[in-house]
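Bumping with the actual sequence this time:
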Amino acid sequence: MGSAAQTKRKSSGDRAESCWLQVGFAQPSTFYRQFRMRYGRTPSEIRQTLLS
């Protein structure tokens, strides 16, 4: 993830549930699948890493 995305994730209360629409996915399942394929972890796993 880029540093701007990391900063936004860390400083906001946005959850992946609200992000999938913002980035152009019609279905959350598609977003989660693509996210995990690209980053190797789920959005919540990355969020936990950023917040710790």
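The tokens above came from a reply further down the thread. The mean pLDDT is 78.
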